[in-house]
Amino acid sequence: MIGSRFSVVKKGVALLLLFSSLLGPAGCYQTPDSDKRVVILVGLDGFRWDYLEKFQPPNLMRLAREGVRAERMIPAFPSLTFPNFYTLATGLRPERHGIIANTFFDPEFNATFSLGSPAVQEGRWWGGEPVWLTAEKQGLRAACLFWPGSEAEIGGMRPSEWRKFDGKFTPDERVRAVLDWLALPPDKRPRLITLYFHEADTAAHRFGVESKETAEAVSRVDRAVGGLVDGIRKLDGARDINLVIVSDHGMAEISPDRVIALNELVDLQTVQIDFSGAVGGLRPLVGTADDLFGKLAARQDHFRVYRRGEVPARFHFRDNRRIPPVIMVPDEGWFLVRQRGLEGQGGKAFLRATHGFDPELPSMGALFIAWGPAFRQAVTLPPFENIHVYNLVCAVLGLRPAVNDGDRRLVEPVMREN
C-alpha cells in the first residue's frame, strides 16, 4: 500500500487529492487514459531472443525498433513452456504457482499433470492469480485465445471469453478472432487479450534452431503479428491498444550423441521419473532420496544432481510438494532419456533442439517487446527476469496486482510519461 501522512491544511489536502487521483488501489499508477487502454499479451512459444537478428522478421523488427525491447528476457527455472507462460501470467515463479514442469506428479493428488491431458482444464492444479482474473475481479473484461491456464476455472472464475487450445487454428484465424473481439461495442470489448503462437517452437524442436523450417515458422508468426497490427490500425479505438509480445524460453540444439541414459545410472524399477529431457525429476520407489542422490552423484557426467533442498537458490525450485526429491540438471545440449536408443517416444524422431536448461544461458533467453501508445519509443533494456511482466501489464491497465514474485522495475523504463 502506498500512502503518506499529510498535515491537515488546505494546501496539503489539495496535494493529497491530486496525488490520489493518479493512484489506483494499492499504489497502482493510473493515468488519465488508463481506463481506456487495451493490452494484447502475445505469446510466441520458443521464440529465442536472438531470432530477430538471426531471421530478420520485418514486422517484429519494426515493433522492436519503435517500442521497447529487452536484450533478452530470462525465463524461470525450468525453462519450459507451461511453467513460464504461467509465470508471465501471474508474476509467480513455478515453485509458487505450482506448474513446475510440462509434466509432473502431485503426491497429494496422487495424479499426474501433463500437456494435452484433462488436468490442463482442472483448476486445482493452477495456483496464483493470472492476469485475466486480476482484470475480471476489478471490472475489466478479459479474453484468452490459447494461453496455459486459461482453459481452467481458477478460484471459481474464468475470463469472459476463452477457447480450448486447437493446434489446427491457423495464425491468421487467431488474429481474426482477436480483431473480432476488438471490434465489439465498448461495453463488450475485452480490455485484456491473450494470444498464443506455437509455430516457432514446433519447428525448432523438429528441425533445429538454424533450419529453414524454423526460419519459415518465424516468418509465419511475423506475418500474423503484422496482420494484427494492420487490423488494429483500422479500428476506431486503435490509439488505446498496446502490444506486449513475449516468449516463454529460447532453444538449444541437442543430438542423439549427447544423451544421458538413466537406465545406465539407476535401476528404473526403483525410481519414478516425474520428468526428463533438459531437466530431470526423480522419486525413489525403493530406498531413500539420499540413497538415490548418492548413486547419481557418484556418476555425474554432463549433469549435476541435487537434493530438492539443495537446488541452487537462484533456481527458486525447492518449496513445493510437486518438486521431486532428486533433481538432475544436464549441461547445455545434453538430454536425459530413460534408455539409450529409445530417445524418440512413440516412434517419433529424436528432437533436434529443446529447452529446459539453466535459464541464465543465452540460448534459453526469451523475447520481450512492448509497443503502443502507453510505451516509450526506441528503448532497449538490459536482461531481466520474466516475473516482472505481470506487474507491467497491471500498470498499463490501472489494475491492483495480486501478490507475486516480481516488482515494478519495468514500469518506469517501459511506460511513457503522461
Summarize the structure.
This protein has 418 residues and is an alpha/beta fold. It is 27% helix and 19% strand.
Account of the 3D structure:
The chain is an alpha/beta fold and 418 residues long. It folds into 2 domains: 261 residues, Alkaline Phosphatase, subunit A; 92 residues, Gyrase A, domain 2. It contains 12 helices and 20 strands. The chain has an 8-stranded mixed beta sheet, sandwiched between helices. It has a 4-stranded antiparallel beta sheet with strand order 12-13-15-14, with helices on one face. A hairpin with a 4-residue loop joins β12 and β13. α7 runs parallel beside α9 and α8 packs antiparallel against α9. The longest helix has 22 residues. The radius of gyration is 22 Å and the shape is globular. It starts with 9 loop residues before the first helix and ends with a helix.
Q: How is the secondary structure organized here?
A:
Blueprint: H1 10-21, E1 38-44, H2 51-55, H3 58-66, E2 68-70, E3 73-74, H4 81-90, H5 94-97, E4 103-106, E5 111-114, H6 131-137, E6 142-145, E7 161-163, H7 171-182, E8 192-197, H8 199-207, H9 212-233, E9 241-246, E10 252-253, E11 259-261, E12 271-275, E13 280-284, H10 289-297, E14 303-307, E15 326-330, E16 335-337, E17 353-354, E18 368-371, E19 379-381, E20 384-385, H11 389-397, H12 411-414
Parallel strand pairs: 1-8, 1-9, 2-19, 3-20, 6-7, 6-8, 11-16
Antiparallel strand pairs: 2-18, 4-5, 9-18, 10-17, 12-13, 13-15, 14-15
